[in-house]
Fold:
Amino acid sequence: MILEAIENYPYEGLTRELLSLGMSWVVMNAGLEPDGEEMADSLENALRSLGDRMKAHTSKMGRNDRSSYDNLFRAWFNRGAPETYGEVFELVIRETVELLRNGSLDPEESLRAFRTDRRGIYLGVEYNGEMALLPAIIKQPEYYERQSTFMLPTMGQMAKIHLDPLWLSLMAVGFFTAFAGSIGGMHYLITKPGIEGFWPYDVEDIVEKGILPVTGAAIRGRVAFTTEELYEMKLAMKLVEDNASIPEEVYPLTLHLHKKPDRQTKVYTELKTVQLNLSGLNGYFRAYIDRIGGAGIGGTPITIELKERGKTVRKYPLWALVDVAEKELQKNVSGDGEMLAYIFVKDLYRAINSDNRKLIEDTIFRLFRQGRGLLEGKGSGSYELRKVLRGFMWEEHLRVLV
Structure:
């Protein structure tokens, strides 16, 4: 039933990835052929596990969605819609659990019901004469892609996706499973395309030992995207700090970076999708942490003092250099020391992912030569970069890096 439902879904991309994530919770708890009670238990378990994310997601619904869902919820649940997408998704899951428990929804009938017409695609069966339109926060990023300076529809006449309560609940569970933060006008979602290939036996490891730790680290670390290299390195560093061990088969994952509506676009826009594979970085950073613990100077761990959001923090030298690289990009540093930290970090990223020890050593030795030249006055660099390099270029730290 579950496998047939996702196989019938006609689109690739974000909506399919979210649906398959939501369905994975059902497969983990009840297998591929759940009855109504098992489906309700599965959704309820997902709700408990993802509750903190639902509370954290506070983006208000747009005017059109608010009006549409207010009318819809009065028909479905005899109440108006909340203000935020997080509250809407949480409410629809809770109410759907009750509908399943009292027999008002038949999961088999819902998941097998599929039709299309000139107005779009219909998933499930009408409940109280109504179906939901996929909300803009999910539909629009896939419908609009950033192409130079204009928006390009990518789903044509089939853009309107209509869902019954069960299908909408599965989409909502998938959304919060993938949710990886909301920072600076951007939404982050991390998905596992093709996760249905791990149904039914291996999916639990992919979700609970893979996607949830990765997205959780991104949320807690407030990992923001500047470049692919820096995003992956900062996320891998946070995973190591969390002592999370991610199974190899979890990768690759896909990061969807969405821009929230503004005065110019007035729609959610998918700015970028990036394939993530953190396995090489995780291994290198874990070894770095293990080695640096025993490489202190006079019993003091090798750390560098930095200012972060007005507070003084101490960080490992490599962590600090990545932070400086990110600031260089944000401030568009120029001059003789232009982007020195970022260039090194990018080179190290490539070396680590090449799994070539000689290339890693050459990259680190090159940084030490460039850093020594900068500190000896041969070139310009920010005060913060010089401070980090002074702490970075200890002989003890060199042994940690290589």
Observations:
- The chain has two domains: 2-280, 293-401.
- Residues 146-158 have pLDDT under 50 and may be disordered.
- The radius of gyration is 24 Å.
- The longest helix spans residues 36-56.
